[in-house]
From TrEMBL:
It comes from Theobroma cacao. It is found in: Nucleus speckle. The keyword Cytoplasm does not apply. This is WD40 repeat-containing protein SMU1. The lineage of its organism: Eukaryota, Viridiplantae, Streptophyta, Embryophyta, Tracheophyta. WD repeats lie at residues 117-146, 155-196, 198-239, 240-281, 375-408.
Length: 408
């Protein structure tokens, strides 16, 4: 039996090999000389998502390689013309995740310390214990190679473990904070470091958040302080002192006039941004077993931004006022072994998600006040959880060297 293989197919196999091994020049030369086009994109899902979100910087180089019929090209360009820049797909209803979508694996001795989605929903960024900051395509679960610096394997990085990252509201910049007290600000499209704050804190930086206008950066640290830094000047503008242990998290109120901090001293504090005065100190309810509990994080509640979600190291999570009254509480009912390590809230505030020291994700419904779903998410201790800004997609990361993406 003889098998006939067309010459074009052999060339396509060689082209595929060149592409997969990043032999770009050989790929181009062979394609031009033989007049044979591979006519594929790396990931159809990513390509479609880029079209839907109007990312022409990523689409055009790929379209140039494709032998598309003229009417298809016209459809593609008209699609964008009439929609302006097409809005990213948005999920209408908040729904809790049920299914594992992708698993991102880090190196053997490496794990993510933090992960965040960009406000425009384009990127997922992780920061690791090995100092690397990586940008992921959450649709394919792979590194974003359309960012040239990542394709060239020149990553954004620190010398020490990177404990926190956050995006500016326009999704153009990210800030990263490391174990040695340094903060760096980067341009995500180029990987360029725009600003270094060498002595932002005397100990590790535990959280970061940009001000609404992107001109300032609020940081917290193991050094018991929260600070506001000016990005233009690189100078320390404000310091908030009063906590007696690690400050684990801080956020601005919706109007930007106050900040709210969460600390291992078991308290939440509300501060005046202008004067740095502490306006309020309160403790969320203690654990069922007695004693006090470290406060992991605070989150503005989307349904009412005068309320905050407070996650402390107990098996309950609370919606509270800025005066410290409990509006609503959600509990797993576990007395031992199920304390929450981290939490996030869905975009419309319908769901509150907690990850526990028992490696489970708890999905609480705001409407019913009940635990509606429980998922085992990792094989080792879970470090954190973060939610996509407008899709029913959650990322969890843990000491088992993985980051997992969960969809509804």
């Amino acid at each position: 039996m003889t098998l006939e293989i067309e010459a074009r197919d052999v060339i396509k196999i060689v082209l595929q090999f060149c592409k997969e091994n990043s032999l770009h020049q050989t790929f181009q030369t062979l394609q031009n000389e033989c007049q044979v086009s591979l006519n594929t994109v790396d990931s159809i899902e990513t390509f479609v998502a880029d079209v839907n979100s109007g990312r022409w910087d990523a689409i055009l180089p790929q379209v140039a390689q494709l032998k598309l019929p003229r009417n298809k090209l016209e459809d593609l360009y008209q699609f964008d013309l009439f929609r302006g820049t097409a809005a990213m797909k948005q999920d209408i209803d908040d729904m809790h995740p049920t299914t594992l979508s992708h698993t991102v694996r880090f190196g053997k001795k490496c794990h993510a310390e933090c992960a965040r989605f960009s406000p425009d929903g384009q990127f997922l960024v992780s920061s690791s214990v090995d100092g690397f900051i990586e940008v992921w395509d959450y649709i394919s679960g792979k590194l974003k190679k359309d960012l040239q610096y990542q394709a060239d394997e020149t990553f954004m990085m620190h010398d020490d473990p990177v404990l926190c990252v956050d995006f500016s509201r326009d999704s153009e910049m990210i800030a990263s904070g490391s174990q040695d007290g340094k903060i760096k600000v980067w341009r995500i499209r180029t990987g360029q470091c725009l600003r270094r704050l060498e002595r932002a804190h005397s100990q590790g930086v535990t959280s970061l958040v940009f001000s609404r206008d992107g001109s300032q950066l609020l940081s917290t640290s193991f050094d018991s302080t929260a600070r506001i830094h000016g990005l233009k000047s690189g100078k320390l503008l404000k310091e908030f002192r009063g906590h007696t242990s690690y400050v684990n998290d801080a956020i601005f109120t919706a109007d930007g006039s106050r900040i709210i901090t969460a600390s291992s001293d078991c308290t939440v504090k509300v501060w005046d941004v202008k004067t740095t005065d502490c306006l309020q100190t309160f403790k969320p309810p203690p654990p069922l077993r007695g004693g006090d509990a470290s406060v992991n994080s605070v989150h503005l509640f989307p349904k009412n931004t005068d309320h905050i979600i407070v996650c402390n190291k107990t098996s309950s999570i609370y919606i509270m006022t800025l005066q410290g009254q409990v509006v609503k509480s959600f509990s797993s009912g576990k007395k031992e072994g199920g304390d929450f390590a981290a939490a996030c809230v869905s975009p419309k505030g319908e769901w509150i998600y907690c990850v526990g020291e028992d490696r489970n994700m708890y999905c609480f419904s705001y409407q019913t006040g009940k635990l509606e779903h429980l998922l085992t998410v990792h094989e080792k201790d879970v470090i954190g959880i973060t939610h996509h800004p407008h899709r029913n997609l959650v990322a969890t990361y843990a000491e088992d060297c993985t980051m997992k993406l969960w969809k509804s």
